[in-house]
Specification:
Elements: H1 2-17, H2 19-34, H3 47-76, E1 82-83, E2 89-90
Antiparallel strand pairs: 1-2
Helix pairs in contact: 1-2, 1-3
């Protein structure tokens, strides 16, 4: 059972990394959470909420990771040409030796 959960976790994370499948996974997760059909029905008091809680935490974790990566990419790649108050242009060049 542990390997099945780990396999689902790895599949979910890998699929969220691919931009073409990301929205399908997010929408599919939300449909599953709102749907009355579950692996463990919500009518069972504790077991019914565990699968939903785990899926919500996985979704929130992956979306927050995507936002963090996006934010880091914005801060690491400034615009190539910036003008300062004296209207001089600065170009940053990396020299490879």
């Amino acid at each position: 059972m542990n390997s099945l959960v780990q396999a689902f976790y790895n599949w979910y994370r890998d699929t969220m990394k691919h931009p073409q499948y990301r929205w399908l996974v997010i929408i599919g997760t939300l449909i599953y959470l709102l749907s009355p059909i579950d692996i463990a029905p919500d009518l069972i008091p504790i077991l019914g909420w565990i699968d939903d809680g785990l899926l919500i935490s996985l979704l929130v974790t992956e979306i927050s990771d995507l936002f963090r990566e996006y934010s880091q990419n914005l801060h690491n790649h400034p615009t190539s040409v910036q003008e300062n108050s004296s209207h001089e242009t600065t170009i940053d060049v990396e020299v490879i030796e």
